[in-house]
Amino acid sequence: VITMNINNNYETKDLGIAAYLIATGHSLKNHSKCDGETYFIFDNNSQIQNEVNNFISRKALVEPVAFSQALRSLKSVIYAIKDEYGNVNNATRRK
Question: What is the pTM of this model?
Fold first, then answer.
């Protein structure tokens, strides 16, 4: 699990953690792409840290439909991110 705390932001490239945070009511603040990885950015606070700790320690509970919807939304974000030349990243999409 790669996470960072930068400028009062919580950043993660872990799709599961990001989906869990959204499913539990946290808003995605932004997203970015660096070295081929997509990072999801949330406001950093003690509640976020507690949620991440619960997720990592397998103590987290979440409504499954909300989690599934959050996963689909984040995957759409990943696929829609444009590279530096303006091309949409479709390399991982199935036809």
Answer: 0.78
Report d(CA 54, CA 11) in Å as an integer.
Answer: 17
Contact, 20 vs 60, CB < 8 A?
Answer: yes
Query: pLDDT tens digits for 3-51?
Result: 556 578 999 999 999 999 999 999 999 999 888 889 999 999 999 999 9
Q: Which residues contact 63 (CB under 8 A, 6 or more apart)?
A: 23
Sheet holding 9-12, edge to edge: 3-6, 9-12, 37-43, 30-34
Locate 92 and state its tokens.
Answer: 């991982």
Task: Say how far apart CA 3 and CA 17 lie, in whole Å.
Answer: 10
DSSP reduced 3-state for 40 = strand
Q: Is 22 exposed, middle or buried (0-12, 13-18, 19+ CB in 10 A)?
A: buried
